[in-house]
Amino acid sequence: MAVNAVARAPGRLPLLGHLVHLKRDPLGFLTSLPDYGDLVEIQLGGEPAIVVCDAELTRQVFVNDRTYDKGGPMFENARSFCGNGLVTCRRDVHRTQRRLTQAAFHRGRMAGYAHRMASQIVAQTDAWSDGQVIDVLAELMSLSTKTLVETVFCDTLDRNKFPAMHANINTLVYGVLREMITPPHLKGLPGFSSRRFRAACADVRTTILTAVANARATGQKSGAVLTALVNACDEHGRRRLSDQDLNDIMTTIFLAGTETTATTLTWCLYLAAAHPEVAQRLRREADAVLSGKAATYEDIPHLTYATQVIMETQRLYPTAWILTRRTTRPAVLAGQRIPAGRTIICSPYLIHHRRDLYPEPDVFDPGRPAPARGTYVPFGGGARRCIGDEFGTIEMTLALSTIAAAWSLEIVRPPTVKVGVLIRPYGLRMRVRRRC
């Protein structure tokens, strides 16, 4: 069965297809595709893939995970280094994993996690000195990693491993997109080598497996995510997560839970500083709600403008800017027949930058009207929506408001946009000044 009446993107190269475009300017390439139609075929090496350029069609793909399962070369490559965690596993595995994992991210546990987050945020920002110039992403990566260790691993992780884990996460973050989009037959060629990446991933997985063993051996119930997962069981009290399951899940959480939060929060601080009226309103809200103290979980419902700033930042720079699926059976999308085994690409970034959905889409405007259904998808959608979205949003809200209450930030050097698995604000330097 062939794909009928699907537009083809121009610029395909022999052997590489459109990989060069995705490597050189992935965001510009993707946002150019709606000019050709709602469904546009590109080539990933020698494999065709269909990019979904319409918000409603993207929603249909997200909610029908029986037909559009996690797959495609990106996720298949990702499984080779982070296993079958929640982000990469197929539907049949995901249903069981999600049920067993959900309890660790239940809203009732968030207050405990938030208390640990708040302590780390205060410790990190109190170490700043008035007038200091900081590497914002590095500072927030450090904060996010410490927060993750405290909330997810707690005492199960050897603190002596912390520096190595921090170094490894940077190696993985920089290399993960290349690892995901490069076809296996190209990985041995110059410029596509992944030896350092693989070594870092192996070290992370070994460390996590040790933490899992520690959690099982002590039987502790510390309130950390890992201990909740170790003790999780199904409704019959029988099915539990194996060590391999836990290693895959925790590797995914570690990769996703550090960089995503740090990157989004870095963009928040930059965008607020670049728009003085936004920074001023954040400070006014923090002053009114916090009265000079650090933000706590109980304050979050009242930090509404901080939440708007985070949402608009995630519209501009969504956590998941590109996602792939693979059809498990013949499908019809937008009236077009799609064969089984075809890679489908959905891009929250593309949807968030459509001018018909968001007027002046490149403008940062936290006061935008509430988005229409299906047009705001920074965490994906359907059953595969990110399980940690609330966890991450809580951390960002606490950090953004705590910083706004105590510090004023000015841009010393604006960031360079670097696109990897996330859209990173690389090289941002800001001067922090303590508020009186």
TrEMBL record:
Belongs to the cytochrome P450 family. This is Cytochrome. The keyword Lyase does not apply. Its cofactor is heme. Heme binds at residue 386. It comes from the Bacteria. It holds the Pfam family p450. InterPro entries: Cyt_P450 (IPR001128), Cyt_P450_CS (IPR017972), Cyt_P450_E_grp-I (IPR002401), Cyt_P450_sf (IPR036396), Cytochrome_P450_monoxygenase (IPR050121). One of its GO terms (molecular function) is monooxygenase activity. Keywords: Heme, Iron, Metal-binding, Monooxygenase, Oxidoreductase. It comes from Kibdelosporangium phytohabitans.
